[in-house]
Amino acid sequence: MALRIIGCGNFDRGDDAAGLLVVRRLHALGVDALGVEIIGHSGETFSLMNCWTGYERVILIDATAPTGTPGQVQVWSAHADRLPEDTFPCSTHAFGVREAVELARAMNYLPPILLIYGIEGKRFFLGAPPSPEVECAVASVAEQLAMAVSNSVVPLHWPQELEK
User: Which of 51, 98, 128, 164 is the most buried (most CB within 10 A)?
Assistant: First the structure.
């Protein structure tokens, strides 16, 4: 089954870069050499929906809004869960990951498997570096995904022992 990993975010807005940093790390770990398509994306709704067209399995990684536990990782299955309204910050286009997933759900346009990994952010202002908590979570997510891909297993949940 074809697998695509999509990291969303903005490198110029601190922890919003989380998904893109996971993608960068997966490339450095050589995961793309295992036949997995790995791309970075802004998270804009309509072009994001096009990114998963033709793929049976998609893993999407993005930063989530701060709730007091920076670096905490949560995983949702798009077919089993609705994404919480206040979890994913909107992109600069006012529509982002949550809107793309929910619109695709309404249009019956979701890939057969779509897992959304959310890394809770702490700071999202222009010019901020990623927080240490998010950098640690990025490393953990990338390592877990690299291991899952090398074992030909798409993780269906986040291992409890890695939660912050």
Answer: 98
